[in-house]
Design brief:
Layout: E1 7-8, H1 9-17, H2 19-26, H3 35-47, E2 52-55, E3 58-68, E4 73-82, E5 89-94, H4 102-119, E6 125-130, E7 135-140, H5 143-162, H6 180-183, H7 185-200
Parallel strand pairs: 1-4, 5-6
Antiparallel strand pairs: 2-3, 3-4, 4-5, 6-7
Helix pairs in contact: 1-2, 1-4, 1-5, 4-5
Length: 211
């Protein structure tokens, strides 16, 4: 397997969320930070400490390198828990509040597929941990989800080989995306201009309500 053929596990989450975002990050090497990505980075830095820790008999391996030759994917798992009995459990840390999102679940499932190939054991479930909510949501990796992961990996590979970026989504995903300016600079510039124009005609707080 050539290095250039390997798909990063993180690309699965990006592609499912927005194929254009995936293209910009993993092909054109464009990445900008906003408040959401900074929070996410801080969350991962807390999880991505390369060490093993035992708690209540569970060994937690952080920043564990993972790969699958079958899918030609590789990356790092935030945390993989190894209980005294039973299969390992990949745990993905997220900075936002607890929500069930397909791109989170598929990324986690891809980690499980890697672990199964590496360790030769079944990994039937994992978990997404929300730092903001301090809650943990279990994710079961059924056959449909596993097939979806394989389909997404092939779609990413096809996207990368074609080299042409999909059109901008221009929907509810865009305002919070850190790549908005790079993705659709004209739209972003118009949004900024509209905001500043409105600010010109907005009365100062101490003048509002005066006649």
């Amino acid at each position: 397997m050539k290095e250039e053929d390997i798909i990063p596990v993180s690309a699965i989450e990006h592609f499912v969320y927005c194929p254009r975002q995936c293209m910009l990050i993993h092909v054109e090497q464009v990445f900008d930070d906003n408040v959401f990505t900074l929070r996410g980075r801080m969350a991962h830095e807390r999880a991505d400490l390369p060490e093993a820790a035992a708690e209540r008999g569970v060994v937690a391996e952080r920043a564990l390198p993972i790969w699958s030759d079958a899918l030609a994917i590789a990356g790092r798992a935030d945390v993989v828990e190894f209980p005294p009995a039973g299969p390992p459990v990949p745990v993905e840390y997220k900075s936002g509040r607890m929500r069930q999102r397909e791109h989170d679940d598929l990324q986690l499932c891809a980690q499980a597929i890697c672990l199964e190939e590496m360790l030769g054991v079944a990994v039937p479930r994992g978990a997404v941990y929300s730092i903001a909510s301090r809650r943990r949501r279990e994710v079961v990796f059924d056959e449909g989800m596993r097939e979806r992961v394989a389909q997404v990996v092939e779609a990413i590979r096809d996207l990368r080989s074609r080299g042409d970026a999909p059109p901008p989504a221009n929907d509810e995903r865009c305002p919070d995306c850190s790549l908005r300016d790079a993705c659709v600079p004209a739209v972003a510039e118009r949004a900024r201009a509209s905001w500043h124009l409105g600010d010109l005609f907005r009365a100062p707080a101490d003048e509002e309500g005066e006649t």
